């Protein structure tokens, strides 16, 4: 979501960025955006709470064939300079899945013992090894895959079946914004229905190009409620506690953030 | 082909309209709405023109469905802003707006305008309270599957009359405070029931999310003794016991273990002034509420009056009041940070304590003030996957009452069923021959 909305729209979630975090992140995002000459604004993704420091995360969307490509950037609350999260090899993905427990908040924290026959590190050269930054990259990608949400109609498929922002999106009505079926996974379509509608010739309706969050298992992993004033719809995930998405009723104002410790609620089946 | 001919082709009727009409309407839409990406979204413009023809565009959402709840909320909330004619009585409320500034440094906010409405809501509620509650403080927010509970609390005035002291603690222990919850600033505040030992213990064994309805049943194993209001109250008790921390020296305990704020010679509450640097170590913080033991109590079980050789059950221990923060592994892990830190840090910076055990629990302190707040789903951090406890052992079979168990059945053997009586015990009297 747009970082300027953090102070005004996240009320129902109970989370916010402290003045220090918000202003540091604002500068860091503009800096990264200018340095990389990005075509569109960097978006705020969320905060991952660690034991010593927290991670602040942002992402960029670049048009790409099929689905826009997402790049993630992070910084810690100790140093507001955004860096891109690394691409992960299969090996590191497997290793990341095996790590449990909280994050430290130190991206260079080693998560495995270096092998004994490792070459001596030269001065000033860091030996490549599995570190928290890799786990962070995997966790962020997983959370984003599982919970990033868009309201129906906010993105459309053009004639070439590219997913593009719908500039004519004007929000959802009161009834529609309070219904789970109005929200979709903001990821490359995976369900057969959505994939098929993107493959078949002709226009695809906005409700057919993404996977519906309504189909997620177990039923009840999502909730949609109105805030107390009934003017904003709030979508929450219980599998990733801390994911919060809002859609202002009748306006093209929406956004999602994650504020949590980076751990899923694996006990969800016992909680519903 | 002449122009007229081409136009004729375009004007051929198809389903009641023609391509000519359609294109002109699309162009009209482009001209009136002026989308910046007309070429890219041309197909969508075209389809929306077609769609508009089949079904009229929905009128602006003025239905009763939409305006009803919003109007209802605004009418009720507007009442909060009405100044009462007479000076209100009741108990003092929290200085929520000042506290909210400190919450914000911890990363907790309900939105500026909503916080003010919450402040008004609590203030109004305080005016209706009995003075026995002394003062109301804000506790935090517990999220549920359908709407959230705002929580505030006041001192419990007195123990209920029919309280069983072996099952439930009174005002000296876990029920020191009475908690009030509401689901929205314009909704009424509801008092939560007192919490029993069994509820605290069971709440620690289950991992249920709240449903948003206080009267909802809590289906779980082990069975939770009570409904959602009781579960919420038990969650609050557990979080308060673990997460109510304050800078050391703010509170003192008397000989009986009663924790009171430190006062100066004039009898006014006067905590010591702290600098940020000191508060960054865990030793600089203490728990100012009593901790819960494994029995779900903060105080010792009362000894029965008649028993001579009474043995306290296992776990009947009382943790020292005002224990230092971070002493117990697994229930009491914290991360202390300056805010602002980095370049913005001064001696006057706040220090925030982030609970790692209870995600969402924070304490912020600086100068002479401190706040505690919780925003979360009421679940404790756990490393592994939850496994429900195994069922308890099979209950004992009923035994033979002593008076029956003497001669016929040997002790320890199962009483056998007696032999069936096959002969008619009351044979009809033989009729005499006449």
Automatic annotation (TrEMBL), chain A:
| Ranges of biased composition (kind: Acidic residues) | 113-122
PANTHER family named among the record's database cross-references: MITOCHONDRIAL RIBOSOMAL PROTEIN S18, RADIAL SPOKE HEAD PROTEIN 9 HOMOLOG
Q: Which GO terms describe its cellular component?
A: axoneme
Question: What is the annotated localization of this protein?
Answer: Cell projection, Kinocilium; Cytoplasm, Cytoskeleton, Flagellum axoneme
Domain of life of the native organism: Eukaryota
Q: Enumerate the UniProt keywords alphabetically.
A: Cell projection, Cilium, Cilium biogenesis/degradation, Cytoplasm, Cytoskeleton, Flagellum
The name under which this protein is listed is Radial spoke head protein 9 homolog
Note the InterPro entries from the entry: RSP9
- Spell out the residue ranges making up region: Disordered: 102-122
Task: Say which family it is in.
Answer: Belongs to the flagellar radial spoke RSP9 family.
Annotated GO biological process: axoneme assembly; cilium movement involved in cell motility; motile cilium assembly
Q: Which species expresses this protein natively?
A: Triparma laevis f. longispina
TrEMBL record, chain B:
The record's InterPro entries line, in alphabetical order, gives: Radial_spoke
Keywords assigned by UniProt, alphabetized: Cell projection, Cilium, Cytoplasm, Cytoskeleton
BP GO terms, sorted: axoneme assembly; cilium movement involved in cell motility
CDD domains from the xrefs? DD_CrRSP4-like
The cross-references to PANTHER family, in alphabetical order and at most eight, read: RADIAL SPOKE HEAD 6 HOMOLOG A, RADIAL SPOKEHEAD-RELATED
Q: Does the keyword Coiled coil apply?
A: no
Give the residue ranges for region: Disordered.
300-321, 401-434
The source's superkingdom equals Eukaryota
**UniProt name for this protein:** Uncharacterized protein
Which Pfam family is an annotated match for this chain, by its short name? Radial_spoke
- Identify the GO cellular component terms for this protein: radial spoke
Specify residue ranges for compositional bias: Acidic residues: 304-319
Query: Which organism does this record belong to?
Result: Triparma laevis f. longispina
Which cellular compartments is it found in?
Cytoplasm, Cytoskeleton, Cilium axoneme
């Amino acid at each position: 979501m747009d970082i300027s909305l953090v102070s005004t729209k996240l009320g129902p979630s109970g989370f916010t960025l402290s003045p220090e975090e918000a202003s540091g992140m604002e500068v860091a995002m503009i800096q990264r955006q200018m340095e990389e000459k990005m075509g569109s604004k960097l978006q705020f993704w969320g905060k991952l709470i660690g034991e010593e420091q927290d991670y602040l995360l942002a992402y960029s969307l670049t048009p790409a064939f099929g689905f826009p490509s997402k790049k993630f950037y992070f910084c810690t609350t100790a140093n507001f300079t955004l860096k891109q999260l690394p691409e992960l090899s299969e090996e590191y993905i497997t290793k990341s899945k095996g790590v449990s427990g909280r994050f430290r908040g130190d991206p260079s924290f080693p998560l495995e013992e270096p092998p004994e026959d490792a070459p001596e590190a030269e001065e000033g050269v860091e030996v490549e090894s599995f570190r928290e930054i890799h786990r962070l990259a995997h966790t962020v990608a997983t959370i984003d895959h599982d919970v990033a949400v868009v309201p129906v109609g906010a993105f459309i498929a053009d004639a070439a079946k590219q997913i593009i922002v719908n500039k004519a999106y004007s929000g959802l009505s009161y009834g529609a914004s309070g219904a789970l079926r109005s929200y979709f996974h903001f990821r490359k379509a995976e369900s057969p229905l959505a994939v098929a509608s993107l493959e078949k010739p002709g226009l695809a309706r906005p409700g057919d190009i993404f996977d519906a969050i309504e189909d997620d298992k177990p039923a009840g992993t999502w909730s949609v409620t109105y805030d107390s004033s009934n003017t904003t719809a709030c979508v929450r995930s219980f599998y990733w506690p801390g994911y919060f998405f809002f859609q202002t009723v009748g306006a093209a104002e929406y956004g999602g953030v994650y504020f949590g410790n980076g751990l899923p609620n694996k006990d969800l089946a016992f909680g519903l | 082909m002449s122009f007229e001919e081409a136009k004729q082709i375009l004007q051929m009727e198809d389903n009641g309209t023609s391509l000519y009409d359609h294109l002109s309407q699309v162009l009209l839409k482009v001209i009136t709405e002026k989308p910046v990406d007309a070429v890219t979204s041309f197909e969508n413009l075209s389809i929306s023109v077609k769609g508009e023809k089949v079904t009229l565009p929905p009128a602006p959402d003025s239905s009763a469905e939409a305006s009803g709840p919003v109007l209802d909320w605004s009418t009720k909330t507007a009442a909060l802003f009405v100044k009462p004619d007479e000076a209100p009585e009741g108990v003092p409320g929290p200085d929520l707006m000042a506290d909210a500034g400190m919450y914000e440094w911890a990363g907790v906010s309900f939105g500026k305008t909503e916080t003010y409405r919450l402040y008004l809501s609590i203030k109004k509620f305080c005016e209706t309270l009995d003075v026995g509650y002394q003062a109301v403080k804000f506790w935090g927010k517990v999220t549920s599957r359908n709407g959230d509970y705002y929580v505030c609390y006041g001192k419990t005035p007195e123990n209920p009359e029919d309280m069983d002291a072996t099952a439930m603690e009174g005002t000296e222990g876990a029920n020191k405070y009475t908690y009030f919850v509401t689901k929205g600033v314009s909704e009424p505040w509801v008092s939560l029931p007192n919490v029993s030992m069994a509820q605290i213990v069971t709440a620690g064994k289950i991992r249920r999310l709240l449903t948003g309805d206080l009267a909802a049943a809590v289906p779980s194993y082990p069975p939770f003794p009570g409904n959602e209001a009781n579960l919420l109250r038990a969650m609050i008790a557990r979080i308060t016991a673990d997460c109510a921390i304050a800078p050391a020296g703010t509170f003192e305990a008397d000989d009986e273990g009663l924790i009171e704020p430190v006062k100066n010679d004039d009898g006014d509450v006067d905590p010591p002034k702290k600098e940020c640097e000191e508060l960054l170590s865990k030793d600089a913080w203490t728990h100012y509420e009593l901790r819960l033991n494994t029995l779900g109590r903060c105080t010792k079980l009362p000894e029965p009056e008649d028993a001579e050789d009474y043995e306290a059950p296992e776990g009947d221990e009382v943790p020292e009041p005002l224990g230092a923060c971070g002493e117990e592994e697994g229930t009491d892990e914290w991360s202390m940070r300056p805010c602002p830190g980095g370049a913005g840090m001064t001696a006057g910076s706040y220090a925030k304590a982030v609970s790692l055990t209870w995600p969402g629990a924070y304490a912020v302190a600086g100068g002479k003030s401190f706040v505690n707040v919780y925003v979360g789903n009421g679940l404790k951090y756990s490393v592994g996957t939850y496994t429900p406890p195994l069922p308890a052992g099979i209950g004992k079979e009923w035994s033979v009452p002593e008076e029956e168990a003497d001669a016929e059945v040997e002790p320890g053997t199962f009483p056998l069923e007696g032999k069936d009586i096959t002969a008619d015990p009351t044979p009809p009297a033989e009729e005499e021959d006449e």
